[in-house]
């Protein structure tokens, strides 16, 4: 494959509860408070097609029925081209533990079901925006650090003021820290409120970027070393009439080749001596955001010029460091809008030099019990576990997938496949993975015959044509689940319904991951009440019934099910051990493995987070760092790093450039209250030691999301790491 083709394809497929002593800010808001006893579903229920009411059913009978229906739908709607049952869907909620979400997502993919998660579009848009900028598909900072911030901007208020990030911002405002909240029609509950018109956040953030550049508030030294500000762009890049160069009006898709860098003879991106020279990324940033004047931003957002100007001046003041931006994510918002807002916030934070330091950078506030963890472990249908890449396309073989996603993701995928399949096939079981089709409808519009909802109530999120289903399975702890009761008042509905009691979150063991990337081991208040079962127990029971019924089936499509690996005992510890792999210290050991086929690791980004480490970090809440890091609480991925790119907090010689000091080079090694987010070469000014953003192919943060791939083999067309590209283009803008 040609260089143009591989680069065109690459990237385009595109809280946890705290224990004793942990401050309230560290707790997941969805889990705080007493467990509701009223309205609980405690007994499995069954409703035959057309019946007027539910009746009790045993668990064994329920799972035998579900398994039988699942295999029937597999047989009637199996697509050899897509390697899946087109009319079988599994819909997961965000209220599952990491282990439950992983097990159900694994079961869905092994059985060839179409998989989707509540709020999936918003979650993946957030991940894409962050990965395209920082190289990590999650927030670089944690809300616990807001206690040390000197200025805070809250963008949006999704999920309500109960989220700990909002509580932290409120506490900072009460302590005298300048706090601004920016959102559509919000009240003044946190600091200085800027209530804006719809889409007004984009105009305000665009104006903030212009103000930083025009008033020389940017941290030039940080930008030169730790971002692509000085990289030179191709002269053919352009933006006219609301579209970037490379746009095809017929297909309405981009060819991003013109979004790349100029190259030196050695194949590396060309750089200018000064970041502001014509042709650089920084010059393009200045030009692109020049139209976002104070007058235009205020008029578009519907706020006063005086108030907006005051916000720009005070938030960017050099004495207000560290400065954090909290991005609140609304799961119901348009993914494109989320991507634009997060990218704008990330660019502003980078321009101010706030990424890589405690109390600065980007903090994410996502509503729900475990939205981050369920996305991390692959419960979103459009992304494999650990953000290893998108599922294969129809007709795409293993080599084609690697050409699209790169060698790093190949190693992560192989480690996952070896955890899922016992096979001698050279593709490790890749040919059994269900395929995806770009632009296909969601499960809501997918003409399904059978839908399994795990910890979710899709009807509460919008209209679903549930009456078209032959079989509906709902697992939830709430007896008021609307989806399970959609037929009430419509006795003629011909849908068979199994309403099965899921244990309450307070009753489940396992782990969750908050939106600051911190994994925490849960301490259940009690075991499951009544006849309710955990998500792991339910997944194991269904898998067991599928296995029983496979014994009498000989169709070729069932062969991959027989080769699949499942746990002898589906316990949280066993599932977690598969997810993190054996004897792995961090994800770099997967990414750099000399022989990845020897590894097994279901979620590569979690490598190193052993159960033993988590057990020792759930009850100690003292902040030994004094910087809001709480190093004895939880395990942040990747590799126990709390602040992404913390190398950028020191100068080229390794001396702290912040007060108070954070990370430093002591002449022999990096030290500080965080795990160094960098390989440990002999000298801090070694070129490898300045790659503060190790997850990007350039090794630096990406103000401009360029079309680029590191380690490209021109003979095979395979790169080590293609850059993630935002769906909306290399720069965010208001449409």
TrEMBL record:
Compartment(s) of residence = Cell envelope
Q: Which Pfam families match?
A: Molybdopterin
Give the Low complexity compositional bias ranges: 673-690
**The entry's keywords:** 4Fe-4S, Iron, Iron-sulfur, Metal-binding, Oxidoreductase
- State a single Gene Ontology molecular function: electron transfer activity
PANTHER family xrefs? FORMATE DEHYDROGENASE-O MAJOR SUBUNIT (PTHR43598:SF1), TUNGSTEN-CONTAINING FORMYLMETHANOFURAN DEHYDROGENASE 2 SUBUNIT B (PTHR43598)
Name of protein: Gll2176 protein
Instruction: Report the main location listed first in the record.
Output: other
Necessary cofactors: [4Fe-4S] cluster
Renumbered to this chain, the signal peptide range is: none
GO-annotated cellular components? cell envelope; formate dehydrogenase complex
> What InterPro entries does the record point to?
Mopterin_OxRdtase
| Domain Molybdopterin oxidoreductase, chain residue ranges per copy | 40-417
Please cite one Gene Ontology biological process associated with this protein. Answer: anaerobic respiration
Protein family per UniProt: Belongs to the prokaryotic molybdopterin-containing oxidoreductase family.
Species of origin = Gloeobacter violaceus (strain ATCC 29082 / PCC 7421)
**Annotated spans, Disordered:** 670-694
Q: Report if keyword 4Fe-4S is assigned.
A: yes
């Amino acid at each position: 494959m040609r260089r143009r083709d591989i680069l065109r394809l690459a990237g385009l497929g595109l809280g946890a509860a705290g224990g004793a002593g942990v401050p309230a800010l560290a707790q997941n808001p969805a889990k705080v408070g007493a467990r509701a006893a009223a309205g609980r579903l405690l007994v499995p229920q069954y409703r035959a097609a057309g019946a007027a009411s539910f009746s009790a059913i045993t668990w064994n009978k329920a799972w035998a029925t579900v398994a039988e229906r699942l295999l029937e739908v597999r047989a009637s709607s199996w697509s050899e081209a897509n390697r899946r049952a087109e009319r079988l869907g599994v819909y997961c909620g965000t209220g599952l533990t990491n282990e439950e979400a992983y097990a159900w997502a694994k079961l869905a993919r092994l059985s060839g079901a179409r998989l989707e998660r509540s709020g999936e579009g918003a979650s993946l848009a957030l991940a894409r925006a962050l990965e395209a900028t920082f190289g990590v598909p999650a927030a670089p900072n944690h809300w616990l650090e807001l206690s040390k911030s000197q200025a805070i901007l809250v963008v949006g208020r999704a999920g309500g003021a109960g989220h700990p990030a909002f509580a932290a911002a409120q506490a900072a405002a009460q302590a005298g820290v300048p706090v601004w909240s920016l959102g559509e029609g919000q009240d003044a509950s946190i600091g200085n409120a800027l209530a804006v018109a719809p889409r007004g956040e984009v105009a305000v953030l665009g104006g903030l970027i212009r103000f930083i550049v025009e008033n020389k508030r940017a941290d030039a030294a940080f930008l030169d070393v730790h971002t692509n500000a000085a990289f030179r762009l191709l002269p053919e890049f352009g933006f006219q009439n609301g579209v970037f160069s490379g746009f095809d009006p017929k297909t309405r898709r981009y060819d991003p080749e013109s979004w790349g860098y100029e190259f030196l003879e050695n194949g590396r991106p060309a750089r200018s001596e000064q970041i502001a020279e014509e042709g650089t990324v920084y010059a393009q940033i200045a030009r692109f955001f020049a139209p976002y004047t104070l007058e235009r931003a205020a008029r578009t957002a519907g706020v006063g010029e005086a108030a907006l100007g005051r916000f720009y001046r005070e938030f960017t003041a050099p004495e207000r460091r560290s400065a954090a931006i909290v991005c609140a994510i609304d799961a119901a918002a348009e993914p494109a809008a989320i991507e634009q807002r997060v990218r704008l916030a990330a660019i502003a934070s980078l321009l101010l030099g706030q990424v890589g330091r405690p109390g600065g950078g980007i903090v994410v506030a996502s509503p729900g019990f475990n939205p981050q963890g369920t996305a991390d472990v692959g419960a979103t249908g459009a992304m494999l576990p650990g953000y290893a890449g998108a599922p294969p396309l129809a007709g795409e073989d293993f080599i084609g997938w690697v050409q699209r996603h790169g060698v790093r993701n190949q190693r992560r995928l192989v480690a996952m496949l070896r955890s899922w399949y016992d096979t001698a096939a050279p593709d490790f079981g890749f040919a059994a993975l269900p395929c995806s089709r770009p632009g296909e409808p969601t499960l809501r519009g997918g003409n399904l015959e059978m839908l399994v909802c795990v910890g979710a109530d899709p009807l509460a999120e919008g209209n679903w044509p549930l009456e078209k289903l032959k079989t509906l399975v709902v697992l939830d702890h709430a007896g008021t689940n609307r989806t399970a009761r959609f037929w009430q008042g419509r006795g003629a509905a011909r849908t068979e319904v199994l309403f099965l009691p899921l244990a309450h979150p307070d009753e489940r063991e396992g782990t969750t991951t908050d939106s600051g990337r911190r994994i925490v081991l849960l301490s259940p208040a009690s075991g499951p009440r009544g006849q309710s079962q955990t998500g792991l127990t339910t997944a194991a029971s269904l898998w067991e019934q599928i296995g029983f019924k496979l014994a009498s089936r000989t169709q070729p499509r069932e062969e991959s099910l027989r080769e699949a690996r499942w746990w002898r005992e589906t316990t949280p510890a066993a599932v977690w051990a598969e997810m993190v792999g054996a004897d792995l210290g961090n994800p770099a050991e997967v990414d750099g493995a000399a022989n990845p086929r020897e590894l097994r690791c279901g979620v590569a980004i979690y490598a190193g987070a052993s159960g033993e480490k988590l057990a020792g970090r759930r009850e100690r809440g003292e902040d030994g760092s004094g910087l809001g890091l709480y190093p004895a609480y939880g395990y942040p991925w990747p590799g126990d790093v709390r602040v992404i790119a913390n190398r950028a907090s020191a100068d080229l010689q390794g001396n702290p450039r912040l007060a108070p000091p954070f990370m430093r080079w002591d002449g022999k090694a990096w030290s500080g209250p965080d795990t160094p987010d960098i390989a440990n070469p002999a000298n801090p000014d070694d070129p490898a030691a300045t790659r503060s953003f190790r997850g990007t192919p350039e090794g630096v943060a990406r103000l401009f999301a360029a079309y680029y791939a590191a380690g490209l083999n021109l003979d095979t067309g395979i790169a080590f790491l293609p850059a993630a590209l935002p769906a909306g283009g290399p720069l965010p803008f208001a449409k």
